[in-house]
Amino acid sequence: MKILVYPHDMNMGGSQLNAIELAGAVRDLGHEVGIVGHPGSLEARVAELGLEFIALPAPGRRPSPTMVRALRSLMSERGIDVIHGYEWPPALEGMAACRGIRARCATTVLSMSVAPFIPRTMPLMVGTEQIADAERRFGRGRVSLMEPPVDTVLNQPEVVDQPQLEALRFEVDVQALKIVMVNRLAHEMKLEGILCAIEVVGSLDNEIRAQLIIVGDGPAREEVARAADEANLRAGSQRVILTGELEDPRWAYQIADITLGMGGSALRAMAFAKPLIVQGEQGFWQTLTPRSQDQFLWHGWYGHGGGAQHGAENLRDQLLPLLGSAERRAELGRFAHELLNRRFSLRGAAQRQVEFYEQVLATRLTSGQWAAELPLAALRFARYKAGRLIARLRGTWSADDFNATATVARGRRRAEVSQP
Fold first, then answer.
1. How many C-beta atoms surround the C-beta of residue 385 within 10 A?
2. Rg (CA), the chain
């Protein structure tokens, strides 16, 4: 097959990194795979994997007619079989570009909920069992599960040469217990937990020698840096270290004694055999154990608690037992590693991805099926845009709306989502 993979963005992030690494694994199974998008920092990862990167113009407002024209021309020239868009803008642009040509479009959504205006006739993959169940209830006929895979060759214990050298570059205390977060510094989903972790580690008793290492960058950088400076000043020592965005954060996972994270970052921590405390919103923190694994396998590596005011207390309850027991850390690190290798390996995911592409090519919808769904999808999109405009006017606008309204937080689909 000839496949184009179209991440929603080419800068560092979990969804786009999964898209690129899975594309490489599909290529290794004998298919012709290219990556398309507006240039960004993840071009380096594309080059490492030996994949072709095809640059597209800056999209502007999404969905972008400019992108649609560029994709249609590219697919026609290259005889593409499937274009695979990640998240809703590439899904809609890929669908529009395929109209009238032989190529077929599919999409993967790894956000915490699916945009209701992605047509229900679109072949869809999602990242958790809970979201798949919600989308089938919404009326989608072709929903598959693709739990975010991890390259267990690239990410594994002892894979990085001399990680201590990187640690010294950032003035990490090699004698301290190291608590690591690899996280985009975003206001939606992430900031609450990051600030909570800074507060908790910054206020640990002096006899607990620990440091919090935060790897990442993003729009909330100033708030995070300010909180880190204040925590270090109160503690009288370097309790919190900000590294900024790193092209290769694996050394941080490798030196970690305990990891905090959600989504793909949580899974990569597990690949390094590290104990994991899963980060969520509204005060949610939960250690991965044999007893808690089922909730994460159902709704993903995320959670929703009873209120942000309880976050610091909840994190301390999860963190202190791990800080106090090397044996418990080793035990839970081994458990996380075994679970990751059993369920989230990249090679197994690539085989499932190819099967999904084959199903997409084998199923052809009639013009009547598309005609029945597209007006409803367009109406939902218009409602979405109107809601965004109202939110801007009220000052409640969110830049990352389908992560800001997670399926796990809602518990059930809202009535307006399930109706056209």
1. 11
2. 22
Using alpha carbons, list the distances in angstroms from residue 258 to 32, 44, 265, 285, 287. 39, 29, 13, 13, 10
Q: Cα–Cα distance between 283 and 310 in angstroms, integer?
A: 5
Residue that is written with structure tokens 């900031």 in the block? 191
Per-residue burial over 242-266, b = 16 or more CB atoms within 10 Å of its CB, e = otherwise: bbebbeebbbbbbbbbbbbbbbbbb
DSSP 101: S
pLDDT at residue number 400: 54
How far apart are the C-alpha atoms of 418 and 121, rounded to whole Å? 15
Cβ 94 vs Cβ 85: under 8 Å: yes
Using CA atoms, how far apart are residues 52 and 66, in angstroms rounded to an integer?
21
pTM exceeding the 0.85 threshold for the entire prediction? no
Q: Lowest-confidence range among 75-89, 269-283, 394-408?
A: 394-408
H-run or E-run covering 415: helix 415-418
221, burial (CB in 10 Å: exposed 0-12, middle 13-18, buried 19+): middle
